[in-house]
Design goal:
mainly alpha
Length: 111
């Protein structure tokens, strides 16, 4: 359950991770910009699959499913800066909480 949403959030986190690694030395060189761009190309999948992602959100997943999604995403990615990683993990928790509430109460209109 929530596999399309997990894949979409994973693609975003791959880009965030790449930016964090590139910025670790305080500057981003051309090679790093290209690597960031390559990860951002994965976002095309997100836009092509919005209806499947919406279906995941509205699937009636349990709180345990949402918690498992959050934990799986946190475990999958490693941001080199500890403070940034903690902030991203907190934001991810908030995002999954909001999405779980949206899935229970509000219909999302994606056309």
């Amino acid at each position: 359950m929530l596999e399309n949403l997990k894949k979409a959030l994973g693609k975003v986190l791959v880009t965030v991770e790449q930016v964090a690694k590139a910025e670790e030395d305080g500057k981003i060189v051309l090679k790093e910009w290209i690597q960031i761009g390559v990860t951002a190309l994965g976002w095309v999948w997100i836009f092509k699959n919005l209806k499947a992602i919406k279906a995941d959100i509205e699937s009636g997943a349990t709180q345990e499913d949402w918690d498992a999604l959050n934990e799986a995403l946190k475990a999958e990615f490693n941001i080199p800066q500890a403070n940034l990683e903690e902030t991203i993990e907190q934001a991810l928790g908030i995002i999954t909480l909001i999405l779980s509430l949206v899935g229970k109460n509000v219909k999302v209109n994606v056309t």
